[in-house]
Amino acid sequence: MSSNSSAKQSARTLAHKSKVAPEYRVILWLAALGFFMQALDATIVNTALPSIAYSLNVDPLQMHNVVIAYVLMVAVFIPVSGWLADRFGIRNVYLAAITIFTVASLGCALSQTYSQLIIGRVFQGIGGAFLLPVGRLALLRILPRNQFLAAMSFISIPGLVGPLIGPTLGGFMVEYATWHWIFMINLPIGILGFILTCTHMPNVKLENLPRFDYFGFVYLIIMMVALTFGLERLSQGGWSIATVLAILALGVFAGLIYTWHAQRDLRAIFRPDLFTDIRFRIGILGNIFTRLGSASMPFIIPLMLQLAMGFSPLHAGLMLVPLVFGSILIKNFATKMIQRFGYYRVLVVNTILVGLGIMSFAWLDAHSNIYTQCLHLFAFGCVNSMQFTAMNTLTLKDLSKAQSANGNSLLSMVINVCMSMGVALVGVLLHLFEKIGVGQSTLWSFQQTFIILGAITILASLVFRQLRQFRLQDQNHPVS
């Protein structure tokens, strides 16, 4: 046999071994199911918010708390998810997560008041916080290492499908049934997941785990909740500025206390030595400031389309399909772009493009050609996805194996916190411009909000200018 044919045979053998073996297929589907439930629920509610508001007699512009409650709880409980799974067993924690998520979904569907819905969303977020991390941990602990990459590639698909169908499915259910069905859809999925977890998921756990950093966890909770709640109260009104500033100051103080604590406790959830890597530091800061403007777009766009431009829920949901399609399509080219131009050029230029793209929605016209509107949303989806891919890769690329899990958890927490704060910021801006623009249309408030969000995002490009010193190195070794 020639060396060329031997190489081909070896490649085929390696590809075959890297596939997930049949005995692990159910576990693979369970992890994918959990990821799908979380990804779907993060987007399906966005197009239904105006209908929910009218049903519960709430101002639609104040419905951001429905999104914040879910995303913030996901952020709060991500740091503890892995430790609990190792302590009490993967099956037990995954069962608890599915049960909490499914029962909370039922609670949301049965809500008769705005407060009941918020409570339901809080518990949905708690359950959702465990679905992806624990599902991913199950694959890592149970599958042979040579099958892990194929498994992770498979479960990433639901993470793309969920946001793709979520807004449209939510709009369809609201228009042709009632908003309650956007939560009821989780019940059969959750019941199926519960049964399969009981019958097929091993209860793998680790012995002699170090004590969990309870104090650090409490400091992080106070920081995340205070910062988000403080912004949220600015949008609601009724509280004095001094009280709101005190809440925000509490969040900042809790963050400083955690930093002091992490430097002294070896069991800290997130060790400060992560930030000795300057790319990680730049990546985290860039994520924070960029996502404050861009992460709220799936929330504010369908809200504007319905409240200010008169679109139906289904039409508003369909309008987001080009955006998500652009996000998926550009992922095939993101690595090539980084390899050709390096992180410095891609992130500095693309951050400005994302900011300008956000501003451009201030001139979105309800009476424009439908193809022009779709192209507009598609283009924004491309640059927005390019931004997230480049930022996330930059943040994690140089971490050691010992730091990678910790760094990934911190990045996941930052992403969700910034998403919740971004949505809260949208509420603040809409409330502010509604007061300032007395006599102006609702569309005017949305337009000014887009301009401010875009300006914040453009300013985030200054963070990535610190990468100038690495541009030659990144062009030689762009993606590790």
From TrEMBL:
Main location: membrane
Highest classification ranks of the organism: Bacteria, Pseudomonadati, Pseudomonadota, Gammaproteobacteria, Moraxellales
Organism listed in the record: Acinetobacter sedimenti
UniProt protein name: Multidrug transporter subunit MdtD
Domain Major facilitator superfamily (MFS) profile: residue ranges: 27-472
A single GO molecular function term of this UniProt record: transmembrane transporter activity
Cell compartments where the protein resides: Cell membrane
Gene Ontology cellular-component annotations: plasma membrane
Keyword annotations from UniProtKB, A to Z: Cell membrane, Membrane, Transmembrane, Transmembrane helix, Transport
TM segment ranges: 66-85, 92-112, 118-139, 148-166, 178-200, 212-231, 237-261, 282-305, 311-330, 342-364, 370-390, 410-433, 445-464
Membrane topology recorded in Swiss-Prot or TrEMBL: Multi-pass membrane protein
Any Pfam family hit: MFS_1
